[in-house]
Amino acid sequence: MEFYAAIRTRQSVRSYKPDPIPQDALQRILEAFQSAPSWANCQPWELILVSDPALKAGLQACLPENNPARRAMLEAPVLAVAVGIEGKSGFYKGQASTARGDWMLFDLGIAAEHLCLAAAAEGLGTVHCALFDFAKANGVLGVPAGRSVVEIIPMGYPAKETRRVPRKDLKEFAFKDRHGAGYL
Amino acid sequence: MEFYAAIRTRQSVRSYKPDPIPQDALQRILEAFQSAPSWANCQPWELILVSDPALKAGLQACLPENNPARRAMLEAPVLAVAVGIEGKSGFYKGQASTARGDWMLFDLGIAAEHLCLAAAAEGLGTVHCALFDFAKANGVLGVPAGRSVVEIIPMGYPAKETRRVPRKDLKEFAFKDRHGAGYL
User: Fold this and answer.
1) DSSP states of A1-18 as a string?
2) SS3 string of chain B?
3) Residue A98: Cβ within 10 Å count
4) Which of A113, B20, B40, B148 has its CA 20 to 30 A from that of A127?
5) Is the Cβ of A105 closer than 8 Å to some Cβ of chain B?
6) For A3, which of B107, B117, B174 is closest by C-beta distance?
7) Is CATH 1.20.1420.30 the classification given to domain A3-172?
8) Buried b / exposed e across A171-184, counting CB within 10 Å, b at 16+?
9) CA A133, CA B97: separation in Å to the nearest integer?
10) Closest residue in A to B176 (Cα–Cα)
11) Does the predicted TM-score (pTM) go above 0.95?
């Protein structure tokens, strides 16, 4: 798929067909995740692909009732669970390199989006889900200390067409040279 | 460009030609940034495109001597400066929704990478740069309180071919169903 078509096609999908994901597509998606850039190439991530129904139910139980992705946790054939490794990204010799400390969340955002865009390029839907109890999810999947689940990304063929969600106009947030100076 | 070709083409570029970026390419890149997903579509970002030489020098002065992107701050025709809006992403009615509090860094990672991938699709190079003094950069660009520069991304035509940096093997970090369980 053409690059910008993948960008446009990627929308948040919360309703899935049960059809499995072809192995070759999954491999390409994993390689897209793998190729993500990170702070000093530290790659502070792991990825757990969950298809076991009991574990999917266990992860669903980590979501609050008001999370609109609850049903997707059981419907999607695969839950791609992104795990962050703490204390690597943004550190040098054990010391934080900037005022923001751990840069892991930024790197995980990049890698998770590589996965979601690659899935879109394969005709698959995804949704970024981070509204859940991280500690409880770590328990469900056996994630050890020093690491944490940061996102659960349902992945599968969309059950229906997904509407495009509007965005802010460029002129509201894109500036030339100084904050607030008009760009467009 | 084909989606996976853009993923492969995007490498960290730290040496740039002075050639300007065509306006139509810049527009497509901005729209790719704009279309990034974010927590509850809160879009906690702004983008400042810096081409003024004095401001570029001011931003360069925010980088420590050991940042390998120092020269790129002057060489690249445009510095795309990603600004995060604090206290929006991951919050509901002023309360943090998860144990991680502000989710802005994750969302900014996604949006910044949309920009870098789109630039790659246009034949342009970029590099994620976050090793600098954020407060000082805010002063240079007049970024008001409640917002902060989080990345400076030089953007322009690469001056030379960039080598691909190796990544961890998939079997080191991709697991099936439970943490540590072999996937491949």
Assistant:
1) -BHHHHHHH--B---B--
2) CEHHHHHHHCCECCCECCCCCCHHHHHHHHHHHHCCCCHHHCCCEEEEEECCHHHHHHHHCCCCCCCCCCCHHHHCCEEEEEEEECCCCCEECCEECCCCCCCHHHHHHHHHHHHHHHHHHCCCEECCECCCCHHHHHHHHCCCCCEEEEEEEEEECECCCCCCCCCCCHHHHEEECCCCCECC
3) 17
4) B148
5) yes
6) B117
7) no
8) eebbbebebeeeee
9) 10
10) A49
11) yes
Q: B123: which residues sit within 8 A by CB, 6+ positions away?
A: B157
Which amino acid does the sequence have at B170?
A: L
Tokens of A89: 């990204």
Q: Which B residues in the span 108-147 are in contact with A, Cβ-Cβ below 8 Å?
A: 108-110, 112-114, 116-118, 121, 128, 130-135, 141-144, 147
Contact A167, B42 (CB under 8 A): no
Residues ≥6 apart with Cβ < 8 Å to A96: A90, A102
Cα pseudo-dihedral A6, A173, B128, A98, rounded to 10: -140
pLDDT in tens, B1-37: 999 999 999 999 999 999 999 999 999 999 999 999 9
Tokens 């500690």 map to which residue? A135
On average, the pLDDT of chain B sits at 97
B77–A contact, CB cutoff 8 A: no
What residue segments make up the domains of chain B, in order of their start? 3-172
CB atoms B128 and A37 under 8 Å = yes
- Strand B91-92 vs strand B95-96: parallel, antiparallel, or unpaired? antiparallel
